[in-house]
Amino acid sequence: MKEIDVSWYDDRATVYDTLHEGSLVPYESVVNELDNLFKPYGVRTVLDMACGTGGHALPIARRGYQVTGGDLSVAMIAEATKKARDQNLSVAFHQGDMRTTCHGSFDALICMNNSLGHITEPEDFSITLANFRKNLKTGGLLFIDHFNGAFMREIKSGYARVGRSLTTEQGVVVDIERSIYSEELQSLIVTTKTYTQKHTEEDVIISTDVFQMKLWTKEQMDEAIVKAGFRPLAFYDGMMSGKLQEFKGVESPSLATFAQAV
Ligand SMILES: C[S@@+](CC[C@H](N)C(=O)[O-])C[C@H]1O[C@@H](n2cnc3c(N)ncnc32)[C@H](O)[C@@H]1O
């Protein structure tokens, strides 16, 4: 099994919400949509695989669900735990690898915000989906939110996110992220650079990093989840906008997979 390096997340855990997804992802509206999907199935317990700093886990818990979060990065888990304490929410956060860790037997499992893309090897992908199945009761629900591989292939270029910043005692911390689509790897190659900008001195590079984010088309995802013991219920687009919308093939930037464990 390929080693997965999460030092990029470890290094940024305390500023992740400000510099990264926390400033971009409409967590509350996404969680409202999940709540609407889960209610008809009587979901009580939810596992958030690769939960990061608890961006989804905490608002889900606030809506009355019993939530567990798992993540490979110790620092992201520490940050999520601190936020839960500050918000007076009872959520169990544990360090673990989504490929292998069994956290229990849940009514629903979510894997949000392109986290699955860190699983770059085809055999690890099957192992991970099989492990998702192991963490669910029969009839349990799976929700995966990921970029749409067909969309990225079509536009070729990927995307760029530039210039988010955070003012600290050390100066202004600036984060730049650029992603380019690789046909060979069927992945985005994500390059990030984080640096501190001072008015009088040279910029100080905190870190630069390049990582691979694997992509799948709807057809590939459909086939893989069926093999892992799921029945597809629906495919959507739109979690990036915070609203579940109809999936429109290559025109949809994201692919939300909703399935049931059989
Ligand atoms: C883009 S972040 C998303 C975090 C969170 N789901 C959110 O929406 O804010 C991806 C997360 O995946 C975690 N991760 C990467 N590989 C993992 C693995 N094999 N098992 C568990 N977590 C992993 C990282 O540590 C990071 O917290």
User: Mean pLDDT, rounded to whole units?
Assistant: 90
Structural class label = alpha/beta
Bound molecules: S-adenosylmethionine
Number of strands: 12
Helix percent band: 25-40%
CATH superfamily of the largest domain: Vaccinia Virus protein VP39
Give, in spatial order, the strands making up the sheet with the most strands.
3-2-1-4-5-12-10-11
Q: Kindly provide the name of the CATH class of the largest domain.
A: Alpha Beta
- CATH topology group of the largest domain: Rossmann fold
**Topology pattern, helix = H, strand = E:** HHHEHEHEEHEHEEEEHEEE
Shape: globular
Kindly, what is the distance between the CA atoms of the first and last residues, rounded to a whole number of angstroms?
26 Å
Poorly predicted tracts of residues: none
SS strand fraction: 35-45%
Q: What Rg, in angstroms, do the CA atoms define? A: 18 Å
List the helices and strands and how they pair.
Blueprint: H1 7-12, H2 16-19, H3 27-38, E1 45-49, H4 57-62, E2 66-71, H5 74-86, E3 92-95, E4 106-111, H6 122-134, E5 136-147, H7 149-155, E6 159-168, E7 171-182, E8 187-197, E9 204-214, H8 218-227, E10 230-237, E11 245-246, E12 254-261
Parallel strand pairs: 1-2, 1-4, 2-3, 4-5
Antiparallel strand pairs: 5-12, 6-7, 7-8, 8-9, 10-11, 10-12
This protein binds S-adenosylmethionine (SAM).
S-adenosylmethionine is lined by residues 4, 6, 9, 21, 50-52, 55-56, 71-73, 76, 97-99, 112-115, 118.
